[in-house]
Amino acid sequence: MNIQNYFAVTMEQQELVQWIGEIADHYADGAVEADEQNHLNAELIQALKDAEYHTFSVPQEYGGKGISLTDFLLCQERIAQVDAPTAIAIGWHHISMFNLAQSRAWDEDVFADLCRDVVEHGALINRADSEASTGSPSRGGRPQTKVTLSGDQYVLNGRKSFTTMSPMLDYFLISATIEPDNKVADFLIPRNVEGVSIDPVWDMVGMRGTASHNLVLENVTLPSKACVGIRPNVNPDQPRKWELSAYMMNIPASYLGIAIAARQHAIDFASTYQPNSVNEPIIHLPHIQQKLGQLELELTTARHFMYAVANRWDMEQQNRLSAGKGSSSDYQNWNSPDIAAVKTVAIQAAISVTDQAMRIVGAHSLAMSHPLQRLYRDVRFGLHNPPMDDVTITQLAQRAIRSQGTKEIATK
Questions:
Q1: How far is CA 50 from each of CA 34, 85, 123, 142, 283, rounded to the nearest angstrom?
Q2: Judging by beta carbons within 10 Å of its beta carbon (0-12, 13-18, 19+), is residue 198 exposed, middle or buried?
Q3: What is the pLDDT of residue 332?
Q4: What H or E segment, with its residue span, contains residue 213?
Q5: How far apart are alpha carbons 240 and 234 in whole angstroms?
Q6: Running DSSP on this structure, what letter comes out for residue 131?
Q7: Which residues contact 410 (CB under 8 A, 6 or more apart)?
Q8: Beta bridge partners of 230
Q9: What are phi and psi of 196, to 5 degrees?
Q10: H or E element, residue 373
Q11: Is-contact 243 138, C-beta < 8 A?
Q12: For the residues of 16-73, what is the DSSP string, one character each?
């Protein structure tokens, strides 16, 4: 069976992977251009919207597809084999919508309006939490974006970093500190509000096609309903709840897509390259087969782990619905050490697989015209996506401690 479809076990899943793959493959050249010119593969994103892929994370009651976590990961992994930055970009839209649909933490009318805008007008949303002065949101820094009250309206000023897919977003979900109460709240900001702008500063060595520019807010005035939630006081050593969501496995799925693409480039090269020192293509050489075997072992192990966790999540969600309990109100903490561990294992595997592929291809892989150099640059960005490895390891350690009936030990 083709490795792309190995985890698509039903006919419906195989058709889904083929469908999304055909869309992505059609815009493969755009991925190269986006990397070279440092902008979004906008035509692919628009094609995904035209195919209504962006509605897959919207609940069925509001006109969306409401697909399973496993099906979502299959799609994301397949898109990433062609264009990982686009998979990451559209994936953040889905993470936002999936989490909101599960938690229902907002006023239902506000959420319903957002869902209708996504379904009827193709709206895209992403969370913008990071700031230059606070670092990763997972480290607990207080937002320097400030909010003041003016009558019954909020006025926001600040700058957010790493706003993925910013040129095509219609909504920004941002964190800000309300003065003088010093409370941290979430705000839903439509793109077309006066004072909202994008500063095109994203110029990284990899993931260039995510267009993760800065979001600038200058005296942005919003109605009271734009405040969609006050954040509770949390331990700064603990990740945000949304970072523990099962749908964050979009990140490992996307980076494993890079690894699958790197694997294919290595096999294609080894199957056809025959220097005059040997009598057949190098894929027949024992040391090349050793590298391919090691590559295959790491990739297969990581994918099995990810899809096993995803399948368990889907089964437990289905069991809750069958029992009439609806979605779990504590869904984001569901077995979070395993969810976090999937990301750590997948990124380690994806980096190693890409490196092994480049060893097989050799110096050819470093040419700017070769696809592997782009995959090499992109895959390393997984190290800097949440949840962070040290947080994951701490979670696993605490689970081990609890399993012995011992209280958690405070981290220092």
A1: 20, 19, 12, 38, 41
A2: middle
A3: 44
A4: strand 213-223
A5: 8
A6: B
A7: none
A8: 185
A9: -95, 125
A10: helix 371-379
A11: yes
A12: HHHHHHHHHHHTHHHHHHHHHHTS--HHHHHHHHHTTGGGTTS-GGGT-----HHHHH
Answer for the pair 55, 63: CB distance below 8 angstroms, yes or no. Answer: yes
DSSP category for residue 240: P
State both tokens at 175: 């964190």
Query: CA-to-CA distance for 182 and 15, rounded, in angstroms?
Result: 51
Q: Tell me the two tokens of residue 302.
A: 């990581």
Distance CA 326, CA 109 (A): 19
Phi and psi dihedrals of 159, rounded to 5? -140, 130
For residue range 319-336, list pLDDT tens digits in order.
Answer: 877 777 655 444 444 567
How far is Cα of residue 195 from the mean position of the Cα atoms in its chain?
Answer: 28
CB of 37 within 8 A of CB of 105? no
How far apart CA 17 and CA 4 sit, in angstroms, is 8
Average pLDDT score over residue span 131-149: 79
Under DSSP, the state recorded for 134 is T
Note whether 347 and 98 are within 8 A (CB). no
Q: Is the Cβ–Cβ distance between 215 and 174 less than 8 Å?
A: yes
**CB neighbour class for 272 (10 Å; exposed up to 12, middle 13-18, buried from 19):** exposed
How far is the C-alpha of 65 from the C-alpha of 54, rounded, in Å? 9
Sign of CA dihedral 257, 263, 266, 271: negative
Please, are residues 254 and 217 in contact by the beta-carbon 8 Å criterion?
no
Between CA 136 and CA 370 the distance in angstroms is 33
Q: To the nearest 10°, the Cα dihedral for 275, 279, 282, 283?
A: 150
Residue 339 CB contacts under 8 Å (≥ 6 apart), including other chains: 244, 245, 246, 248, 249, 309
Which two tokens mark 11?
């006919």
391 or 201: which leads in pLDDT: 201
CA separation for the pair 111, 263 (Å, rounded): 41
Task: Give the whole-angstrom CA distance, residue 103 versus residue 122.
Answer: 22
Chain segment 152-205, per-residue pLDDT in tens: 999 999 999 999 999 999 999 999 999 988 899 999 999 999 999 999 999 999
Alpha helices in 104-224 (DSSP H): 108-121
Nearest to 92 by CA among 63, 121, 130, 62: 130
**Separation of alpha carbons 58 and 115, rounded Å:** 6
| Three-class secondary structure of residue 100 per DSSP | helix
Alpha carbon distance 363, 351 (integer Å): 18
Question: For 213-235, what is each residue's pLDDT tens digit?
Answer: 999 999 999 999 999 999 876 55
